[in-house]
Design brief:
Chain B: One of its GO terms (cellular component) is plasma membrane. Chain B: This is ABC transporter permease. The complex is a heterodimer of chains A (384) and B (326). Chain A is an alpha/beta fold. Helices cover 33% and strands 20% of the residues of chain A. In chain A, strands 6-7-8-3-9-10-11 form a 7-stranded mixed β-sheet, sandwiched between helices. Chain A has a 4-stranded antiparallel β-sheet with strand order 2-1-4-5. Chain A is globular, with a radius of gyration of 22 Å. By secondary structure, chain B is mainly α. Chain B has 2 domains: 49 residues, no CATH class; 267 residues, MetI-like fold. Chain B is elongated and about 75 Å long. The chains are: A alpha/beta (384), B mainly alpha (326). Chains A and B meet through helix 2, helix 3, helix 5, helix 6 and helix 13 of A and helix 1, helix 2, helix 9 and helix 10 of B.
């Protein structure tokens, strides 16, 4: 469903550098933390783009820039063709209605001094044109119902809810203005595994119901695979590999993606014994001092002289350009080669090739069925 | 995660979130949620906020109850001193100077032959008025300046921080001697003004730090992402979550302001006779302490109890508001 429609969100050359200063009275810039250093991607209507990467790679900074909480140092974020990075005042407020965020930590993202009704209803205080005054309470209750909470909880305070319920409140707040895009910054990583599945499935259901597009940021690869149509892998402020989820997970060509995937826990003990684990040497370099050329070369087992001199572009690598297979997707590596590190998921095994094939079962089957308990819960919550 | 809470009703709610039957859980949770409620009334949909939680704690704290009763008593007698003292604090009879306790004059007489009991009762008014008004002034000025500096940061914040540093460097008593000795007005206002002038940097620092902490919370970012204006962020999200430390420090400071007023009056630069103040009485009784110790002890005792009461109140409030102790 991705490539056919015009992108709703287009990010070009996004850069965020935080200046490092020294001096007490007269501040002098001595360097910069290059949190995000040239990110490009696009998001189609109704699509979910997963962004993965380890801590400190700039995922959250990208999210903050998308919702205009941080101003980019350079680059463009085009929403329906209009660059939103330099907007202010009324125009910015209008854009904010359409791009909303779900935060990582449900314990700090809800104001402890406000009731749930005030937290969700605040959107209507700020954008009074969305809902007439008398209608607001009803709307908040509808939202609570939609996210699977009892509408009677409207007068409760956040500390009276569990983590999963709080995250549902956070999602309801994000939905209040009926946005088209939701940027979810690690929305489930603070939750219990059992609750994670519920929240993910809730988000999948809401996507269909409200025709949402998601930017889904996480460091948990299996969750991203579960919800995403396309995946971008970030390393040190850049996207190093991007493609449909099956392309990335089953046919990674960038060594960093391969190393990340090889660390995913495998539930089957037999498969676990046979798989190869790629252990990277050293730590992530400091974002103040990014290596020349390929930024991954300091930890890469394939690195050669060329990697230090030439910055690899994020494009389909030359060796795959003529083949039309799942390996032919964007990968920023001079020596890209396909390597299967994760045993493929059951439904993908028979007919893997072709981008349309594997994404079907994921896009549709993945976001629904997966776990039993949630299915029953969903019915309960909608009933009550 | 829900199991971390030792709080039974929460677990009941959490259980429903896990996919159980929600309707069943709800009715149960709502009723369980109302233990001996904070205000006893309204048993259905009135859950406890953090403030009412704090109030709930305070009501069970004997330190708070005792100090609050003492303070209440002080406020009442400073508004209506004639309730418990019939005479005038300015009616003195030199013939009775330094005499001890006698019927109708339980605390005896001071060096001028004035009734110590009456003067001690009337002295409360000055102390309480100075304490409360100075604290209000300090709290308002300090939290507004500190809060704005913390919220907006930048050059204004840097300038304000340096100014507070300068004020911190002024020794309070020396500053008082210099500044107040040039003022002739014999009211409480110069003293209050001086205390506000020297006291606001302390609150300003607390407020600044607390606003900086609060503004980094995700819920502030979330409101900003919704398009909230700065004033909404400050008033609805930051202030309610940053005010607790200011309240605590201000309550504790109130006691020290009362003793500061007494100190300045003792030194002769605060209030001057014929005003009535514990500081003045302590000062005038000090030379005769061997002959008439009671004239010194009663006002000093009253001062000590008052200061202690406010500091204990501040302590109790801090315990109730500090989330880390919860």
């Amino acid at each position: 469903m991705a490539e056919t429609t015009e992108p709703i969100l287009e990010v070009r050359g996004l850069v965020k550098h935080y200046p490092l200063t020294s001096g007490i009275l007269f501040k002098k810039q001595v360097g910069a933390v290059k949190a995000v250093d040239g990110v490009d991607f696009e998001l189609a209507r109704g699509e979910t783009l997963g962004i993965v990467g380890e801590s400190g790679c700039g995922k959250s900074t990208v999210a903050k820039m998308l919702v205009n909480l941080e101003r980019p140092t350079a680059g463009e974020i085009r929403y329906k063709g209009e660059d939103i990075t330099r907007l202010s005042g009324k125009a910015l407020k209008t854009v904010r209605r359409n791009i909303q965020m779900v935060f990582q930590d449900p314990y700090t993202s809800l104001n402890p001094r406000m009731t749930v009704g005030d937290i969700i209803g605040e959107a209507y205080d700020i954008h009074p044109e969305v809902a007439p005054k008398g209608d607001r309470r009803k709307r908040v209750q509808d939202l609570l119902d939609v996210v699977g909470l009892n509408p009677e909880y409207i007068n409760r305070y956040p500390h009276q809810f569990s983590g999963g319920q709080r995250q549902r409140i956070g999602i309801a707040r994000g939905l209040a203005l009926r946005p088209e895009i939701i940027v979810a910054d690690e929305p489930v990583s603070a939750l219990d595994v059992s609750v994670q599945a519920q929240v993910i499935n809730l988000m999948g259901r809401l996507q269909d119901e409200f025709d949402l597009s998601y930017i889904f940021i996480a460091h948990d690869l299996s969750i991203v695979r579960h919800i995403s149509d396309r995946v971008g892998v970030m390393y040190l402020g850049r996207i190093v590999e991007t493609g449909r989820d099956a392309e990335i997970y089953d046919h990674p060509t960038h060594p960093y993606t391969q190393a990340l995937l090889s660390a995913v826990p495998v539930p089957d003990p037999e498969a676990r014994e046979h798989r190869e684990r790629i252990i990277l040497a050293g730590d992530v370099p400091s974002p103040t001092n990014i290596p020349s050329g390929c930024r991954f070369r300091t930890r890469c087992w394939k690195a050669q002289e060329r990697c230090a001199l030439e910055v690899p572009l994020l494009a389909v690598p030359a060796e795959f350009r003529d083949v039309s297979g799942p390996a032919a997707h964007d990968s920023a590596c001079h020596f890209a080669e396909e390597k299967q590190v994760v045993p493929p998921e059951e439904p993908d095994q028979p007919g893997a090739p072709g981008p349309a094939g594997p994404s079907g079962p994921h896009g549709a089957g993945g976001s629904h069925g997966a776990d039993g308990p949630h299915g029953s819960h969903r019915e309960d919550s909608e009933g009550g | 995660m829900p199991d971390q809470e030792p709080y039974e009703p929460e677990r009941a709610i959490a259980g429903t979130g896990m996919g159980g039957t929600m309707d069943l859980g709800t009715s149960e949770a709502v009723t369980l949620e109302q233990p001996p409620g904070p205000d006893g009334a309204d048993p259905r949909e009135k859950p406890r906020s953090l403030w009412s939680d704090a109030w709930h704690d305070l009501r069970r704290n004997p330190v708070f109850i005792i100090s609050a009763l003492v303070i209440l008593f002080l406020i009442v007698i400073s508004i209506w001193p004639s309730l418990i003292a019939s005479g005038s604090p300015l009616k003195c009879d030199l013939a009775k100077a330094q005499e001890g306790s006698q019927p109708g004059h339980p605390f005896g007489f001071n060096g001028q032959g004035c009734d110590v009991y009456t003067r001690t009762v009337y002295g409360a008014r000055t102390s309480v008025a100075v304490g409360i008004l100075a604290t209000l002034g300090v709290a308002v000025l300090g939290s507004v300046l500190g809060g704005l500096a913390g919220f907006f940061g930048g050059a204004g914040d840097a300038v304000l921080s340096r100014i507070t540093d300068i004020f911190f460097a002024i020794p309070v008593v020396l500053g008082g001697l210099v500044l107040l000795s040039v003022i002739t007005s014999n009211t409480i206002w110069p003293v209050i003004g001086f205390i506000v002038l020297l006291g606001w940097p302390q609150i300003s620092r607390i407020a600044r730090g607390s606003v900086i902490t609060a503004k980094q919370n995700d819920y502030v970012q979330a409101a900003r992402a919704l398009g909230a204006s700065n004033s909404r962020l400050l008033l609805r999200h930051i202030a309610p979550n940053a005010i607790a430390p200011v309240i605590v420090v201000a309550t504790i400071a109130l006691g020290t302001y009362i003793s500061l007023e007494a100190t300045l009056s003792f030194l002769g630069v605060g209030l001057k006779p014929p005003s009535v103040s514990w500081g003045i009485d302590i000062s005038s009784a000090a030379p005769y302490v061997r002959n008439a110790p009671h004239a010194l002890l009663w006002p000093s005792g009253a001062l000590a109890i008052t200061v202690l009461a406010f500091i204990m109140l501040g302590d109790a409030v801090r315990d109730a508001l500090d989330p880390k102790l919860r």
